[in-house]
Amino acid sequence: MTLPAKNSAREQDNALLVAVAAGDRRALEELYLGYHRRLSRFLSRFTPRYENVEEIINDTFMIVWQSAKDFRYASQVSTWIIGIAYRTALKSFRRQKNHMGAQNLDDCPEQTVDPTFDTEVQDWLKHGLSQLPSEQRLTLELAYHMGHSLEEIAAITECPVGTVKARMFHAREKLRLYLPSLSGGAVGSPAARE
Amino acid sequence: MSYHLSNRDARVHQEVSALLPWYVNGTISELDRQKVDAHLPACADCSNDLARELYVYRSMTADTAVEYMPAASLKRLLTRLDGVAAPAATDAAADETADAGPKTMRRRHSIPWMGLIAASIAVMAVAVSLLTADRWLYSRPSGSQPNYYTVTTALPRAPGEVIRAVFSPTITLDELQGILDEAQLRIVSGPTEAGVYSLAAKSNRPVSSSLALLRGHAKVRFAEGTAESTQIATGSGNSP
Fold first, then answer.
1. Highest CATH level, class, for B161-233
2. Model pTM greater than 0.95?
3. What are chain A's domains?
4. Which residues of chain A make contact with B21, given a CB cutoff of 8 A?
5. Mutation choice for B interface testing from A3, A113, A150 by most B CBs within 10 A
6. In sequence order, which residues have a C-beta less than 8 Å from that of residue A157 and are 6 or more positions away?
7. What percent of chain B has pLDDT over 90?
């Protein structure tokens, strides 16, 4: 069952995209402002520089502007836009990786740390996330940071559901190595497995 | 019999384990949720996994302190749009714009010949316009205004403007509002592409005092009194 508020947000997005397809820049501005916060918070988990975040968001909306006419409303507008941002970000991260050798996500500001959590474990988690391949980390972030369902992530990433499950499985397996002692709800300092 | 059951249990265990991330983020279907609920009490491994996933989830969803203000970014996007034609499908964009359908299902529209001819004419028209613009740029008087500006270029002054300021891109709306309230200022225009805000006074507080407050704030990157306001208020220069 879908909540009325969600429906109305979808309808509003649909109406805005129709207007964008007709060349309405005000509609694009409204769509941009509606998604900027969500996208910037998501992307800033991967890159410490706002310039990079802005570049990805603006590239995304350039594509939205140019391709709105092609949108067939087979999916939600939000899924479509986040999907474009996902692919744009993936390209950007790969480019950065090529330029920088090994991507150092440890440099990213960890903005999501609740001070009540154990700092050492947070460091392990941060390090663990930084070690994941881009696709796996993006899958994890789409599920946990953005709160998307399995099917939505499949649509966003243009992958079969099985692929999303596999990426998530591998991401969790790798993170497990960094967070071995988080069993039974207790958050302790991580100890080496075995 | 017991072999069959343990195989079945192993399969359920794998299924449930794979569903845990979506159980944790609350997007799991009702049917799957019931499956997980039924399995968890009997499986210590899955219970441990759940604790770990909950921890990771809570860490990753904890509220972020950084919030970017979109106005300056949007302006830059709109400037980029100026150089782009009205919305049209492009091959370059096509790779990024799958509409949640299998790629094999995507249909390419055939391009009518009339459309191609019209497009060719449009390209020629643009080329002629560019050539004309180029010649005009060379032929115009050298003293005319450039079509760009910098942060320090004298911009048309907004009504009531007394201060121009640039804030950190990481400033939140609440922080910005707090600073402005404290300094008794309000935004009268901006931000420009360079992120410059024009600020007007909300009270009789001296401009120099508002300036000092702005400059003392870590989230203010630049604050400058406009020439007239500083002459009136302080009679001194206000270079940061």
1. alpha beta
2. no
3. 1-109 (1.10.1740.10), 114-187+190-194 (1.10.10.10)
4. 140, 143-144, 168, 172
5. A150
6. A83, A86, A135, A138, A139, A142, A163, A164
7. 14
